[in-house]
Write a structure and sequence with these properties.
By secondary structure, the chain is mainly alpha-helical. It has 2 helices and 2 strands; from the N terminus they run ααββ.
Protein backbone atom coordinates (compact mmCIF):
# COMPACT_ATOMS: atom_id res chain seq x y z
CA UNK A 1 0.00 0.00 0.00
CA UNK A 2 3.02 2.27 0.34
CA UNK A 3 3.51 2.51 -3.43
CA UNK A 4 -0.07 3.68 -4.14
CA UNK A 5 -0.28 7.10 -5.77
CA UNK A 6 -3.69 8.79 -5.91
CA UNK A 7 -2.79 11.13 -8.79
CA UNK A 8 -1.39 8.34 -10.92
CA UNK A 9 -4.58 6.33 -10.39
CA UNK A 10 -6.74 9.36 -11.17
CA UNK A 11 -4.91 10.18 -14.42
CA UNK A 12 -4.90 6.53 -15.46
CA UNK A 13 -8.68 6.42 -14.96
CA UNK A 14 -9.08 9.65 -16.92
CA UNK A 15 -6.94 8.34 -19.76
CA UNK A 16 -9.05 5.19 -20.07
CA UNK A 17 -12.34 7.12 -20.41
CA UNK A 18 -14.06 7.71 -23.74
CA UNK A 19 -13.67 11.10 -25.43
CA UNK A 20 -17.21 12.24 -24.51
CA UNK A 21 -16.66 11.52 -20.84
CA UNK A 22 -13.32 13.33 -20.94
CA UNK A 23 -15.06 16.40 -22.36
CA UNK A 24 -17.76 16.25 -19.68
CA UNK A 25 -15.10 15.83 -17.01
CA UNK A 26 -13.46 19.04 -18.18
CA UNK A 27 -16.67 21.07 -18.64
CA UNK A 28 -18.89 20.14 -15.68
CA UNK A 29 -16.72 21.31 -12.72
CA UNK A 30 -16.08 24.83 -14.09
CA UNK A 31 -19.75 25.12 -15.14
CA UNK A 32 -20.80 24.13 -11.62
CA UNK A 33 -18.51 26.76 -10.07
CA UNK A 34 -19.78 29.47 -12.44
CA UNK A 35 -23.41 28.56 -11.73
CA UNK A 36 -22.74 28.66 -7.99
CA UNK A 37 -21.13 32.11 -8.27
CA UNK A 38 -24.06 33.35 -10.40
CA UNK A 39 -26.63 32.11 -7.88
CA UNK A 40 -24.72 33.68 -5.01
CA UNK A 41 -24.49 37.03 -6.78
CA UNK A 42 -28.19 36.93 -7.69
CA UNK A 43 -29.08 36.19 -4.06
CA UNK A 44 -26.97 39.10 -2.81
CA UNK A 45 -28.49 41.51 -5.32
CA UNK A 46 -32.06 40.42 -4.55
CA UNK A 47 -31.49 40.61 -0.79
CA UNK A 48 -30.35 44.23 -1.15
CA UNK A 49 -33.45 45.06 -3.20
CA UNK A 50 -35.67 43.65 -0.44
CA UNK A 51 -34.00 45.88 2.14
CA UNK A 52 -34.71 49.00 0.04
CA UNK A 53 -38.30 48.08 -0.76
CA UNK A 54 -39.62 49.15 2.66
CA UNK A 55 -39.11 52.87 2.47
CA UNK A 56 -42.44 53.91 4.06
CA UNK A 57 -43.22 54.68 7.66
CA UNK A 58 -43.66 52.23 10.53
CA UNK A 59 -47.34 52.25 11.48
CA UNK A 60 -47.82 49.25 13.81
CA UNK A 61 -45.58 46.98 15.86
CA UNK A 62 -46.60 43.64 17.37
CA UNK A 63 -44.98 42.60 20.63
CA UNK A 64 -45.49 39.41 22.68
CA UNK A 65 -44.64 39.70 26.36
CA UNK A 66 -43.45 37.06 28.83
CA UNK A 67 -47.04 36.07 29.68
CA UNK A 68 -47.68 35.24 26.01
CA UNK A 69 -49.97 38.25 25.52
CA UNK A 70 -49.85 40.07 22.21
CA UNK A 71 -49.66 43.87 22.19
CA UNK A 72 -50.22 45.93 19.04
CA UNK A 73 -48.49 49.29 19.26
CA UNK A 74 -49.42 52.18 16.97
CA UNK A 75 -46.68 54.58 15.96
CA UNK A 76 -47.41 58.14 14.91
CA UNK A 77 -50.49 60.30 15.52
CA UNK A 78 -53.60 59.06 17.34
CA UNK A 79 -56.43 57.21 15.60
CA UNK A 80 -58.64 60.32 15.60
CA UNK A 81 -56.20 62.43 13.59
CA UNK A 82 -55.34 60.16 10.65
CA UNK A 83 -56.30 56.50 10.82
CA UNK A 84 -53.75 54.19 9.23
CA UNK A 85 -56.27 51.41 8.59
CA UNK A 86 -59.50 52.23 6.78
CA UNK A 87 -62.17 49.59 6.42
CA UNK A 88 -64.05 49.84 3.10
CA UNK A 89 -67.26 48.57 4.71
CA UNK A 90 -67.85 49.25 8.41
CA UNK A 91 -69.29 46.23 10.16
CA UNK A 92 -73.01 45.74 9.59
CA UNK A 93 -73.69 48.36 6.91
CA UNK A 94 -73.82 46.01 3.91
CA UNK A 95 -76.01 42.92 3.99
CA UNK A 96 -74.55 39.53 3.09
CA UNK A 97 -75.44 38.45 -0.42
CA UNK A 98 -77.01 35.07 -1.07
CA UNK A 99 -75.23 33.26 -3.93
CA UNK A 100 -76.97 29.90 -3.41
CA UNK A 101 -79.47 30.43 -6.27
Amino acid sequence: MNDYNFWQDLFDTYQSLSDWLKILWLIVPPAFVLALVALTMRFRIESRKVERRFDGELVYSIHRDADNRVHILRHGPGAGESPALLLPDPAGTEKAKDFSR
